[in-house]
Amino acid sequence: MMLQKTASWKSLWRWVILPASFVFYSDLVLGQSFTFTREVDLHFGELAITSNASVSSTTIRRNGTTSNTGTIFVIANGTPGEYTISGATPFVALNLSITLPVDSSAAFSGTEQLRLSAVDMPSVVTPNSNGEVTFKIGGTLQTSGNGGTYLNPATYPFIIPLDVTY
Fold first, then answer.
1. Torsion sign across C-alpha atoms 81, 86, 88, 92
2. CA end-to-end span of the chain
3. How does DSSP classify residue 37?
4. Residue 25: left if φ>0, alpha if ψ -120 to 50, beta else—which one?
5. Which of these, 78, 84, 111, 149, could form a disulfide with 37 (CB 3.0-4.6 Å)?
6. Cβ–Cβ < 8 Å for 28, 13
7. What is the pLDDT of residues 81-96, one digit of tens each?
8. Low-confidence residues of the chain, pLDDT below 50?
9. Which pairing describes strands 115-120 and 133-142: parallel, antiparallel, or unpaired?
10. Per-residue confidence (pLDDT) for residue 121, from 0 to 100
11. What pLDDT sits at residue 30?
């Protein structure tokens, strides 16, 4: 999973989560500097979509429980993502948000894209006395429901912007 960090305005940091390795772009605006580390990828597992005639979804919560609707089935379980922020100011709350929906960016012609329609994550985390905090992210993945096809096998990567404000 690749992460890109950009500063949008004084106290806003944005990480873009991609399936690859980490890349950080940092333009320090206020003097608050911290590190974002991926401990475990957010991964929805291996899925089977038997029909795309209507919207189907699969959800993995941050506690690891899963549920499905429609004609999407989990063949191999996924994992919620686990991330650590370190080097932050101790005991200063960090607000987390993701702008939704986010569509996959599969570079295959003739395939539908998947959509991240919801996330399960804390809205606020507070670093400990060492300036570290670890949190998990789950989410809901949806099909398009328009009758189009999905390639099999294929990986559907996402760019997920995580905003951190303080």
1. positive
2. 25
3. E
4. beta
5. 84
6. no
7. 999 999 999 999 999 9
8. 1-30
9. antiparallel
10. 96
11. 46
